[in-house]
Every structure is written in structure tokens, then in C-alpha cells.
Amino acid sequence: MKSVIAACFDVYYYENYAKASCVVFQKDEEERILAEYNVLIDEINEYIPGQFYKRELPCILKLLDKVKENLDFIIVDSFVWLNDSKKGLGGYLYEALNCKTPVIGVAKTFFKDSTNYLEVYRGNSNKPLYVSAANLDLNYAAQFIKELNGEYRMPQVLKRVDQLSREA
């Protein structure tokens, strides 16, 4: 396997601020964390159903400014494409990065009418992860997520970034 440097992001919302976290890792025959980043955001947008990206995207972009590593791609906790005519958070992030940095979306819940994704089953879980991608072969993206470390449904690195965003 070719060596890859990727970053996964997650944002946790508190009452009047958010904490965005990022874990940068390298994956080849092994998998190791290279860096962890965090940023607190005081001004967060209101959550609007169906427009999650308007709240999350500014947080991710603010944190992405701190990342020093050259990334092969980014992993977000959402869909990249919801269907042929509608983008998810990952699609908006891909556009915000001038369509240069590939994005993998890993969603835990299915979005009604979604297309352009693959179901990935990990560990002994009967519940899939829904993987989508921009500027990256979808089969490669799904296999990459499937092969990440961790014996359960969620890869360890995605659990780590979630945990990091929730730490006070």
C-alpha cells in the first residue's frame, strides 16, 4: 500500500461555542498519528435543518489553517454527495478547497435519497458506514475506511477525533 497522509475532522457544539478537532495520520503497512489540532470557535452559525454545512464548514476551514502537513485527502463525518443534485458537508468542503484536495465522507446514518456512496461494514457490526468521496475513486475510499485500524464499526482514528472534540 502506498503511504498516505490524511486528516479527519470533527466538530462538537457546546452551548455558545464549538470545538473543532483534527487528527492527521499516516497510513501504509501501519497506521500512526502524526499530529492533533484543536480550535475553539466562539461565533458559530445556527443549526438549520438540511443546511448542516453552514454551521460545520466554517469551523473545519478555521482549523484547517493550522494543519502543517501536506494532506493526500481529508475525511469528514458526513456525506460528500447526498445525491446527484445535492452536496453534503464533504462536497461543500471540497469546493471551498478549490476542488484540489480529495474528500472522503463517512456517515453513520443514511440520508434519504442518497446516491453515490458505498456501504462499508467493519468488525462484527451489522450497521454500515456510508462512504462517499470527491476527487477520489469511491471503491478506493471505501476500502481505505474498511482497512483503518479498529475492530469495531468506527475506525480508531475517527473515534479519536470525536473524543478529542468532546474533551473540555
TrEMBL record:
Sample GO molecular function, one term: endonuclease activity
InterPro entries to which the protein is assigned, alphabetical: Endonuclease-V
Gene Ontology terms: biological process: DNA repair
Keywords recorded for this protein, A-Z: Endonuclease, Hydrolase, Nuclease
Superkingdom assignment: Bacteria
Name of this chain's protein: Deoxyinosine 3'endonuclease (Endonuclease V)-like protein
